[in-house]
Amino acid sequence: MVSPKAKANQAYENLSAKSKAQLTRLEKLSKKDDTIMEQSIAEYMKNWETFEKFVDRVDNWYAKNEKKYIKYMSLYNREMISKAEFKVALGDLSPSLNDVEIHALYRMMDTENIGQVEYSRLYEAIWRALGNKYVMEDDINRLDLDMPDKWIQMTFKVPSFEPFDMPTTFEHLINLDYTGSMLRQLIRSKVTGLATRNIVIFTEAARYAETVVKCHQRLSDFNYTGGAKCAPNEAVIFYDFSMGKIDCPLLTHVRNQELNEKTKKKGTKRS
């Protein structure tokens, strides 16, 4: 397997002399702001809520603009692009992102600090970064002191199948205050090949329609009991997804239920 650094070196060697000179000038200009940017990112990312909203905003933007992003980046005609090239392109594509946010995205992608990134891995990078923050942000003020019996060693499973090229079963220590939205984010960060936002979570495989965990609902609303963090209870939760290529019966069923509820409400208002 070729390392990111080897890919970056190969990409640079394939450039023309003129392109190398232009790239060198861009990188020199970019380096002047790096120290200030790193300090700004540290402040920006301190707040968990701010970071979570930032990831959600980029996720929503990418879901709507993925084809445009890939097409634009492919104009560089190579897989690995420099920091300056990535920043300039992303600034053109997404005017709503400020300089600090664009630099933050670059740092999420260039984890080995090699000076170049594989632009096609943006989506994977943001959810990997969120997953890492979940692990690191183990807030001491909220753990065993406030929630002594709310911890679960949860196994996440897809009940139907597990693709050979993308393992979908994993374990994670969570607490009963986790919401459906937080669980979805955790799944995306753990199953990095899951390039979809269409995820449904449910507590019983045989009764998925009745046990769907909605975004605002907490695990404490369901039939789960926790234990101490040092001795958590073990439990299983299920999820299913659609990659957009095949129909997912569960997603179709849930969406049909939501549509029926909306139709009933409209009918009630008219009468």
From TrEMBL:
Alphabetized SUPFAM superfamilies for the sequence: EF-hand
Superkingdom of origin: Eukaryota
Protein name: EF-hand domain-containing protein
Organism: Protopolystoma xenopodis
